[in-house]
From TrEMBL:
Coiled coil: none
Spans annotated as Disordered: 28-71
Protein name: Type-4 uracil-DNA glycosylase
The keyword Metal-binding appears for this protein: yes
One example GO MF annotation: uracil DNA N-glycosylase activity
One Pfam family this sequence matches: UDG
InterPro entries membership: UDG_Type-4/5 (IPR051536), Ura-DNA_glyco_family4 (IPR005273), Uracil-DNA_glycosylase-like (IPR005122), Uracil-DNA_glycosylase-like_sf (IPR036895)
Composition bias, Low complexity: 50-69
Catalysed transformations (reactions): Hydrolyzes single-stranded DNA or mismatched double-stranded DNA and polynucleotides, releasing free uracil
Protein family per UniProt: Belongs to the uracil-DNA glycosylase (UDG) superfamily. Type 4 (UDGa) family.
Residue ranges of every copy of the Uracil-DNA glycosylase-like domain listed in the record: 108-265
Length: 274
């Protein structure tokens, strides 16, 4: 008889004797210990530490990017600026947005302020932060190529700026608090330039300046009206505004370049017909 059968018969006999003696067999038979799982060998490809993701929440948890200022303070800081030189000096002296403390430079604008088209993007990136000018990196180079392809010159026929004048760390999306604090700065900027046509490059600038809740997919390619704000923030005369895909988005999804190109041509036609 196999050894396993001998042990089984012996266990049955033992438990029967225990039951005859009034002893519950389950209370004395030790429970079978679960086998320990085998240790997994580390995989050098899968077990690498996950990189930190730059988000507004992560930045705030680390003590950065918290918008300590107040939009009213920003509006007061630029209310008396009656020229672009005065506005630039006022923005450089404004300390109400914590992004300024982590940025290398204040990024103001480039191009011709007398041009009929003003393009407003989101925020400076690494290249913009280093050079102190908006849209000078890869996305800016794509934007310049599109402008030139339509027969315009990016240095003389357009004027370019951003909602935020300082780079968010890690090129993360700016928080709603940071946008709110800096919004009076770009509103004063637009008022002083007073372009014939505004172009919002990307969903962040379009949503913030149009006070829209829909995304760029629905906003792009549709004419909207932007109301010029006075020094107190009160709306006045309207300017035609066209939301476009941000050039950085087009670098990731080049199949959308066709739609962006058609939207840009609508801007050129509107200016030429003005």
């Amino acid at each position: 008889m196999p050894a396993t059968d001998t042990r089984s018969e012996a266990m049955k006999a033992l438990t029967s004797w225990w039951e005859d003696m009034g002893i519950e067999a389950e209370s004395v038979v030790p429970e079978k210990k679960a086998a320990k799982p085998a240790l997994r060998q580390p995989d050098p490809l899968k077990d690498q530490p996950k990189p930190a993701i730059a988000t507004p929440q992560a930045a705030q948890a680390a003590g950065f990017g918290q918008a300590e200022g107040d939009p009213m303070d920003a509006r007061k800081a630029v209310a008396k600026a009656n020229s672009l030189d005065e506005l630039k000096a006022a923005i450089e002296g404004f300390d109400g947005c914590a992004l300024k403390r982590t940025a290398r430079n204040t990024v103001f604008a480039r191009g011709n302020p007398q041009a009929p088209i003003m393009i407003v993007g989101e925020a400076p990136g690494r290249d913009e932060d280093e050079q102190g000018k908006p849209f000078v990196g890869k996305s800016g180079q794509l934007l310049d190529r599109m402008i030139r392809a339509s027969g315009l010159d990016p240095e003389t026929d357009v004027y370019i700026s951003n909602i935020l004048n300082w780079r968010p760390p890690g090129n993360r999306t700016p928080s709603t608090e940071e946008i709110a604090v800096c919004l009076p700065l770009i509103e004063r900027h637009i008022a002083l330039v007073h372009p014939k046509v505004l172009v919002f490059a990307g969903g962040v600038s379009a949503q913030a300046l149009l006070r829209a809740t829909t995304g760029i997919m629905k906003l792009r390619g549709r004419w909207s009206e932007y109301r010029i704000k006075d020094a107190e923030g009160e709306p006045g005369e309207h300017v035609d505004a066209m939301p476009l895909f941000h050039p950085a988005y087009l670098l990731l999804r080049p199949q959308e370049k066709g739609r962006a190109w058609r939207d840009w041509l609508e801007v050129v036609k509107r200016v030429e017909g003005a």
